[in-house]
Amino acid sequence: STWLQTVSVPELAWVIFTHGEDNDVVLAQRLAEAILCRQRKRGPYKSCVELADVCREVKQGVDDRGQHPAKLTFQAIRAFLNHEVEQLHLALRGAMQRLRHGCLCVVITYRRKEAAQVKRFLREHEEADARFATFVTPRRLAELYPLLTTDFPWACSLASEATKPSLAEMDRNPRSRPAVAHFLRKETRDPMLSPCLGVLPRPQKDQLKIPQPLPFLGSSRGQGVQGRDRGDQR
């Protein structure tokens, strides 16, 4: 409640969109507008129920995943205030630093955003594929394998595919339904792959580029069908 009194609509919309899992920027803005409009008219929120009612009204009482319509908004605000993304990253790095080489780190996530962060950590700490070094520049190699820009003595690899709870487990413990277990292994870095220390990768916005699409000429087959339809109508 205190934090909601300090944010603007664009800020709240950013939190809901970035940390929530609706993946809908328009819906995030609608929720932010409605939440803060109600606060301006009636004063600060006094209970979670009041906030949940606003979310239910905006989502018209339904959620595509069959869950409470306010759940993802609450999760987004909680994740932002608790710095959950940053804490997960720090926990993963701390675990890797303390594990012995060859040992496993098992991470259980309950949200897709959390699972995405685990995968991102893996990509950022994977050992480089030596084949790329034969046809890309050192700078590009550092962009593809960020670990090369560090002097960490360890790397991270995927030990096995992520697993979900069995039907029997979900029957015994319904709260385990969204859980996903990830298995990461701590590896010793390959001394043959020299780190790209001092190499400065480009900003991510400069590494991607929107291509120019080819002109859409339509389908000659479709045009023929349309022509016959128009003739039939005449």
TrEMBL record:
One Pfam family here: Methyltransf_5
InterPro entries: RsmH (IPR002903), SAM-dep_MeTrfase_MraW_recog (IPR023397), SAM-dependent_MTases_sf (IPR029063)
Ranges for region Disordered: 192-234
GO molecular function: rRNA (cytosine-N4-)-methyltransferase activity
Lineage: Eukaryota, Sar, Alveolata, Dinophyceae, Noctilucales
Protein name: Uncharacterized protein
Family: Belongs to the methyltransferase superfamily. RsmH family.
Transmembrane intervals: none
One GO term describing the cellular component: cytoplasm
Annotated source species: Noctiluca scintillans (Sea sparkle)
UniProt key word Transmembrane helix: no
GO biological process terms on file: rRNA base methylation
UniProt key word NAD: no
Keywords of this entry: Methyltransferase, S-adenosyl-L-methionine, Transferase
